[in-house]
Structures are given as C-alpha cells and as structure tokens.
Amino acid sequence: MPSSTISREPLSSKTDSIPAIDAAIIGGGIAGAWALNLLQKRGYNCILLESSSLGADQTLASQGMIHGGLKYALSGVLTGASEAIADMPRRWRACLNGDDDVDLRGTHILSERYYMFAEATTLGRLTTFFASRALRGRIDRIKPAQWPEEFIGFDGVVYQLNDFVMDTEDLLRTLVREHQQRVFRFHADATNISPHAHGGYNIAFADKTVHASTLISCAGNGSSQLQQALSITNLPVQQRPLKQVIVKPKHEIMMFAHCLTGIASDEPRLTITSHRQADGVSWYLGGQLADKGVELSDDEQLAKARAELKTCVPWLDWQDAQFDILTVNRAEPKQASGIKPDEAYVVRQQDFIQCFPTKLTLAPDLGDKLLNVLDKPEHPEPLQTNHPLAEIGISPW
Known about the structure:
single chain; D-Amino Acid Oxidase, Chain A, domain 2; disordered N terminus; 9 helices; alpha+beta; FAD/NAD(P)-binding domain; 8-stranded mixed sheet
C-alpha cells in the first residue's frame, strides 16, 4: 500500500522524468474527499485537487443529514428514491464505528437522531403509512415523555427516524486527516491538465508535471467546465438551485427535524438543522421552503420563512430573530425530466471518470460504484512536490 505521506522537496529541485500516480481527483467536496480516503485505503496512489477550499461550494452548505429516504416517501408510497437510500444510515454508522473501509471514528455528530413532527390532525393517511410494517425500524412515533426538549410546548405528534446529522466541517477534516499532503490548491483547466498520448492525463503543478492514469471528476458545479476543457462529451450536468434560509433566534434551542404540519406535497414543509457558534445558535432551513424559494425574491423568501416558522414552530420565540438567505446550486447528472437522481452517479469515459454523490448521504454508494470502474493500482511511488496545499472551508453560518 502506498504511503499516506507525500515528502516535500526543495523548491529548486526539478526532475526530468514524469512521476506517475494512479488517480487525480478533482473537487474537494464530500465526493472527492470520500474518494481520496477510500482509494488510499484500497492501495491506490492518489491526489486531490481543489480550486478554493474543501467543501466550500456544496458540502458545507448542505444540512449534513444522513437519512434513509423517508422524506422522499411523503406521498405515502415507498419510491425508487426512498429505497435506493434506505441502507445509508447503516453504512455510515459502520464507518463511524470503524467497521468500513472509510474510517470515520471520532467524527463529530451534531445530532444522533432526526425527527418528524406535525399537528396531529394534519397528517391524514401518512399516520397509517408511518405505522406500517414496511417502515418498521425506520420510523417510530414517540410519546411526549420521550420528546427532546425542543418539542416542549408543542401540541401534536413526533416521530423519531433512524437518521442523524453530521458536522460537515469535521467530516471533511476526518476524511483528509491522514492524507493532508495529498490535497492541493489547484484550479483545473486546459492550461494545466492535458490528455497523454498513451493514456491518462498530465497535470502541470507549480514545480513539475505529474502523470495520472485516471482523472476522477468530483468537481460539482465545475464539472461542465472541466469536461468542456478536456473535450469530454455525453456526460451532461444539471443544476437544481435552492434558496436556503439561515435564522439566528434569540433563544438557544436547537432542532433537527422535518415539519409536516399541513403537508400538501411529497416533501417536508420545513427541514431544520441547527448549529451552535460562540455568538449563539443558527437554524438552517430547507425543504419546500428552499425548493420553492428560488421562485421568490429575497424579500419574499424571508417573509415566507418567518411565516413558516410561526406556523411550524409557534411555541418558540421568533421575535427579533435575524434572517439571511443562502443560495446553493446543486450539481447532478442530467435527468430527462430535470428531477433529482435516485442514486450516486459514476460513469467512466476512457481514462476520465465523472462522479456525483447527488446527496451527501449517498457517499458510500458513490465509493462502491467508483471501485467497480477503476483499474488496479500500479504506481506506488510517493509523489514529491512543493505545490501549495488546500485547506478546509468554513461553514456559512
């Protein structure tokens, strides 16, 4: 197995021969960091190239949920999307216990549980669906005596899911901890990456050129530009924007839950996560609010968020809370109907591989698919370079 440490050489040192590695991964979000960790564990000699900071585009703007897909089954029917993702909480917990190739032991978890709640009279046939045998072990209605403190004062029903929420900053930190000298600040384009005549790609670092047998694109929103620069075709990308809302209330209560009160579609009305900083707590709001919010002006979206919190969480104080908008562009493999994909996406075209996890929770699925299309590792020699390293980004709240 190749060493996880890349030795550093003097700036004046040059080499006439081109050093070779098994794979260069482009994009330092969850997909790229997961791929680096997994492939190094499997004996591949890899590097990770990130144009800014790790996680800065989509990963750190996600809500960090590791879920089993029930939020995609709120029509009362199990769907392809809900079932493709059903096993992911178990896979992640295996990683957190050190029982998987990707070892996440010690990674900070924001919440060990996730909840669904609604006014009791507004769920309709979902009440029967949630109690069905098909969902046993995935969702349980809990009694008021078992409710976490954030639901004190609520008059309705609360369900506990087999889902949890990761600290995405700490997740990225864990994934690259043993491979930090392999993570480079590098803006990939046609000026510094080029196909090699005999296969693979040449990568022009600040001090030398490196040959990668395979180029793995985990570039998210940069995928289309990278494909165009390298003349890669037939791997189209779509974007599905979100207009998330960050709320800083005066209270210090945290919540991790989907609000289903008066639900009128197959998506949670509000999807809520919370984050604590030195200056207080921030609530991060997604769900229908974020999906439909792209059709609204910023002022309209902020007014909508205030109204939704007063409807969904009326027992907490929202007076004098501060509201801000965060627009996120989700990048995914293009679908004929423009809807969200059900699974992680990995497609190989010669020595170029395009990857999308499509959702944070599907990172283990992406890893499985990536291993299935890779050649065996063959370049164990550690890379020596002084090219600048990339750092982990900062969460938007």
